[in-house]
Task: structure prediction
Amino acid sequence: MSDLLERLRTRGWRLTAQRRVVAQVLDGDHVHFTADEIHARAVELLPEISRATVYNTLGELVSLGEVLEVSTDGRAKRYDPNAHHAHQHLICQSCGTIRDVHPTGDPLIALPSTERFGFAVSGVEVTYRGLCPDCAAKA
Amino acid sequence: MSDLLERLRTRGWRLTAQRRVVAQVLDGDHVHFTADEIHARAVELLPEISRATVYNTLGELVSLGEVLEVSTDGRAKRYDPNAHHAHQHLICQSCGTIRDVHPTGDPLIALPSTERFGFAVSGVEVTYRGLCPDCAAKA
DNA sequence: ACCCTATCTTAGACCTTGTCTAAGTCAATG
DNA sequence: CATTGACTTAGACAAGGTCTAAGATAGGGT
Result:
């Protein structure tokens, strides 16, 4: 994740304590926190960090392509630091947990040009939904 | 769309003026309004209809499987009356317009069991993103 | 080493989307 | 056509997110 900070500095980012902390919270794979969860964890590392800063920083990381925004259910967005490996998501309908998954094949080629209606199609997201083992056991 | 009302009545729905109006607004294909847009149009037909009723009615239509909820961008959910034909969505990144599209093949089979992590997978959504012809022309 | 200043951070107001409540209204059954 | 449980209403409330104006600071220039 220090690569990330390095990469950002060369792109003109000012390296503040707050940004370091947000990057640190996002570190690790298969992390898909909401902005508030990220804020809660950041506060433990830097008590005076504000909600606005966390939102700003996440927004910047998204524009820079370092982090992906995942809008799952119309509730809080989640942030996915695994932006450099193509992957899709598997979401538990009950508890909202997200797993990264790697389907076979390229979903873009499944959309013939007659089904593109003149759009310049630039990406696809595939979202699998189901019940995770824990929630399936409870049901 | 009167089929819809008929179907709902046989399922114990009380047929009120408000519900008729919401169904009427949803009528037509390729309509993907937000709840507020539906409310605005419903008010033109029935000025005293309240926001809460529109939300209630949409929620009921979704639970009954007559209408699909589409969470595209973490902003307002959109409602898709085309629930009886399997389809996916193509969304303009600039203006938010949604088109129904029909990709070839079944995206579920692209997820091998080794990538399911014990989940009971019950559905997939595929969302294509790009620029619609209008927005591409402006850019 | 230490200014300087553009950039960053902050608290809190504010906005949008959606949910809830308690009181009043009405569709449809008998 | 009276009754009643389901439906609707206005408005308060809640969650998630954005914006603003004032203060703080990273890092380049000297």
